[in-house]
Records
---
Amino acid sequence: MPAAIEAIIVANNARSGPVEEISLEGELTKVRTELRTRQRETIMAIKPVPFEIEKTYPPRGPLQQYRLAQSAAFTCFRCGESKKSKLITLYGEDWSRRLCNGCYGRLLSIFVVKAG
Ligand SMILES: [Zn+2]
C-alpha cells in the first residue's frame, strides 16, 4: 500500500469525522483543476494545426481532406470512433471537428446528391 494512502488512513483513524473528508475532497478538487489547466495549455499549444500536413486535397463544400506526414490518432466527431490514420477530414476548417474516412465518404455522397 502506498505510504500516502496509509497516512490518510492513519489520519482518519486518529481523528475520525468529517474534517478529514473535507480536506481530501479539497485536495482532489485542486488536482482536478490543475489537470484541466494542463490539458487546456496542451490544446492551446497544438492549435491551430496540430499535425504536419503532407497534402491538402481540394475542398468539397464544408469538407476539407488532408493527408498527414504521420498517421495520427483522433476521434471522429460524427461517429465518435477513435481512428488512427494519415487521412483526416475537417468539417468547416475546424480542427475540433475531425472526420474519419468512412464518414467523409458518407457526407461527401450526401453533399454531392444535394449539389446535383
Ligand atoms: Zn466517423
---
Amino acid sequence: MKLLVLGATGPTGRHLVDLALRSGDSVTALVRNPAGLGDLADRVTPITADATSPRDVSAAAAGHDAIVSALGRGNSVRADGLFTRASAAAIGAAREAGVSRLVWLSSFGVGHTYDWSSTPQKLIYSTLLRSLYADKAIADESIRSSGLDWTIVLPTRLTHGPAKGTYHADDRLPMKGNPSISRADVAAFMHGAAHGGEWSRRSAVISD
Ligand SMILES: NC(=O)c1ccc[n+]([C@@H]2O[C@H](COP(=O)([O-])OP(=O)(O)OC[C@H]3O[C@@H](n4cnc5c(N)ncnc54)[C@H](OP(=O)(O)O)[C@@H]3O)[C@@H](O)[C@H]2O)c1
C-alpha cells in the first residue's frame, strides 16, 4: 500500500511509519523538517511541507492509497487551529487526488465521546485539554461528513510503552479512572485500519 503519513516525525507517527515499512508499504512522509525523521529518512519519500496548507497536502496526495494522520501539538495545550486546518487540507487533497481512505488520529473524550468518559477524564478534558479538544471536535465532524472512507481513532492517554497487542478497540468502551494505551499499539491499530475494511466509516475507541 502507498501511504501518505502526516505527523511522521511525532512519536506515534514514527511507530506507524516503521510498522508500515516493515510490512512492505511504501511511505511518503509530509514533514515540516525532514531531519526529524532520523533513521527513517532514507526509507521514506520525504516531502517538506505544512499539513495545514491545502496546496501542500494536495500536491503530496496524488498516487497514494490512503492518507494517515498522527498530527499533534506536541507538548502544547493550545490547538492553534491545527486539527481544523489540517483536516480541511486532507479532505480537500483526498478528494482532488481521488484518495478515498483517510485514517485520522484524534483523542478519546473529543466530541460525543466526552459523555462516555470517567469523572477524572472529564476533569482533564474540560480544563487542560479544552482548546485541543474543541479544535479536534470540529475536525472529526468534518471528516465524518466528508464522504470519504474515513476512520477516526480515539485513544485514551498515550504512553511511550511497548506494543502489547492486547488492547481493546470498539465503537464504545467502558471507562474507569484514566486508562492508557501505548503509542506503539495505537500505531499498530491505525496501520491495520488503513489496510482493512473493518473500521471503515467508524470511530474506534482504543485503550488497554
Ligand atoms: N498525549 C496523550 O495522552 C494523547 C492521548 C490521546 C490522543 N493524543 C493525540 O495523539 C496525537 C499524536 O500525539 P503524539 O504525542 O504521538 O505526537 P506529537 O508529539 O503531538 O507529534 C505531532 C506531529 O505532528 C507534526 N505537526 C504538527 N503540526 C504540523 C504541521 N503544521 N505540519 C506538519 N506536521 C505537523 C509534528 O511535526 P514536527 O516534528 O515538525 O513538530 C509531529 O510530527 C495527537 O493528536 C494527540 O493529541 C494524545
---
Amino acid sequence: MTPSQVDSRVVRGTGLDAVQLLDETGARHGSTQYDRWLEGLDADPALALRLYEDMIVVRRLDAEATALQRQGELALWPPLLGQEAAQIGSGRALRADDFVFSSYREHAVAYTRGVALVELVRVWRGVTASGWDPYAVNMATPQVIIGAQTLHATGYAMGIQNDGADAVAVAYLGDGAMSQGDVNEAFVFAATYGAPVVFFCQNNQWAISEPVTLQSTVPLVDRAAGFGLPGVRVDGNDVLAVLAVTHEALDRARTGGGATFVEAVTYRMGPHTTADDPTRYRDPAELETWTGRDPISRYRTYLTGLGMLTADEEARVQGVADRAAAELRAGCIALEDPPALTIFDHVYAEPHAALAAERAAYAQYLEGFADGADGEGLADPAAGTTDPATGTDAPTGGAR
Ligand SMILES: Cc1ncc(C[n+]2csc(CCOP(=O)(O)OP(=O)(O)O)c2C)c(N)n1
Ligand SMILES: [Mg+2]
C-alpha cells in the first residue's frame, strides 16, 4: 500500500477518524478497500458530474424552501444545508427496487428517488397529511417520530428476506435518534435475523439544541459492535466516500451478509428547522470550522482539477438549479388548501358515530364563518360559553 492508499478507518487531519477519499482541499486519496465501488464513476465523467449537479440542485431547493417559509408560503422547513454529500452520495448508491425509510430532513434522498419537487413541500405547507405515493418511488413519506423508521425498515427488510429478493431497506436516522429505544430494538432484530437493511446515521452533531456528546460518550459507530453489526464511520461531507461506503453496505445486505450501521459524520449548517435559532446555543466558531469542510466546495475543486467542471458546465448546472427552484416555488404557491372537513377522512378505516358527531360539530362551527354571517351565534373558539355550574368558561363544540 502506498502512502496515498488508505484502508477503512483513516484519519486525514480532520480528527474525524473516518473513511475519507476526498479531503477538504479536493485531493483524492486511493483506497484498496473502496476504490472498486467508484470504478463506474471514474470511467464516466457524466456520472461524476451528475453528483455535482445533484448537490448544487438540492442546496438550491433547500434555500428556496427556506425562503418560502420565511415568506409565509410554508409553515415549517427542516433545512438540509451541509448534508448534501451524505444524502446524495448514499441516495445515488441505491437501486430502484431498494426501499428508503427516512426522517424529515432527507429531501435530497427523496430527490434521488424521483419524488416530484412540489411533493417535497406539500406536507410542510400543511395541505396534506402525506407528501407522495411511497410505492411510486420506493421511499416512505418522512417519519417525524424520532427513530421509528428504523423499525419499519427492519420489518420491511425481513419481508424482503422472506420473499427471497435481493433488494435492501435503508433507514436514515440522526445522531439524536441513537438514544431512542425503537432504534436499539431495530438493531437487535436486524442483527439477529441477518436482515438486509442499512442503517445510515447522519451524525450532524446536533439534535435540536443538544450536542451529540449528550447522546454518546463514545463514537456512535462503536455502538454497532455491541449489537453484532458491522459498523463503518465515513466522512459524510465526502460524496465519493459516502457513495463507496454505502455501495459496500448494500452489497453486503444483497449477498446475505445482513445489516450494516453507517455513521456519516457531517454537520447541520443551518437551524434545526425554520422555527429554531441556533445562535442561542451554538458557538459560531463551530460553524466556521465546518464551513471549511463544505461538501460541495471540495468536490468542485476536485472536478475542476480534473478539467471536467468548466465554466460552461458550471453555468449549465446553475441553470438546472435555478429552474428547479422556480418549479418548486411555482408548484408550492399553486397548492390549494383542501376543504377543512377532509381532516376527518382516513382517520379510521371505517366510519363510526363518534367521528360523525365530531365532524358534524366542526361543520357547524365552520358555518359560523360563512359569508353573510352577521356575528350572531358566531362560534368564537377562544371565548367559549359560561358553565352555569362553575361560572368558568367551557369551550364550545362537542369535539372534545
Ligand atoms: C419520539 C420523539 N421524541 C422527540 C421528538 C422531538 N424531536 C424532533 S426532532 C428531534 C431531534 C432529532 O435529532 P437527530 O436524530 O439528531 O436528527 P436531526 O434533526 O439532527 O436530523 C427531537 C428530539 C420526536 N419528534 N419524536
Ligand atoms: Mg442530528
---
Amino acid sequence: MKTNPVHKAPPGPRDTEVQTELQRYGTVVSRPIALNHKARVASVESLNQILADTMTLRDMYKKHHWQVSGPDFYQLHLLFDKHYGEQAELVDSLAERVQTLGGVAVAMAPHVAEMTSITSPPRGREDVSTQLFRLLESHETIIDESRRAARAAADSGDDGTNDLLISDVIRTNEFQVWFISEQNTAAHPPEEGPEIVEELTSSGRNSTSR
Ligand SMILES: [Fe+2]
C-alpha cells in the first residue's frame, strides 16, 4: 500500500533541532566588529534576558488592551495598544542586536516563559488598578536590568549595546511609566495630595521633598 505524503507525520521537535540548527542557543560566533568574544558573550546574555522580559511586557500590554474594563475603557484600550507597538519595536531592536553580536536571540513563547523574570498574570481578566500595578512593576524590572547591562556594556567597550539600552530601551520604558503612573494616580488620588500642595505653597519651595 502506498503512503500518502500528506499523512506523513512531521519530524518531532527534537529531530528538527538536530537536523536544522545552524547555531545552538547560548553560543556566540565571531563578527569583525572590533569587540572581543568575552564582551559579546556578556552583552548577548544580558540582552536576551531583557529581550525575554520585553516580550513578556509587550504581550501583557496586548492582554490588557483586550481585557481592560471600566469607565476609562476606551482611553486605556488605546494607550495599552500604543505601548504594545512601542515595546514590539524594542523587541526587534534587542533581538537584532543579539544577532549582530553573533548570538542567538530567544524567540518562541515557551522559551521566553522559561526565562522571564516578570511574574505572569492569570489568564482571566483583572481590574484596572491591578493591570496598572503589573505594568509598572514590569517596567521597573526592565529599567533596572537595562541600567546595569548598559553600564557593563560601557565598561567592556560595547558602545552599540550601551546606546541601544539607554537611548531606546530605558527612555521608552521611563516614558511609558510616566503615562501609566499618571493613569494610576488618576484612578487612586493620593490622600496626602492636598497637604503637599499646601506645604509647597506656604514654604515657597519648588521641590517635592517631604
Ligand atoms: Fe486591537
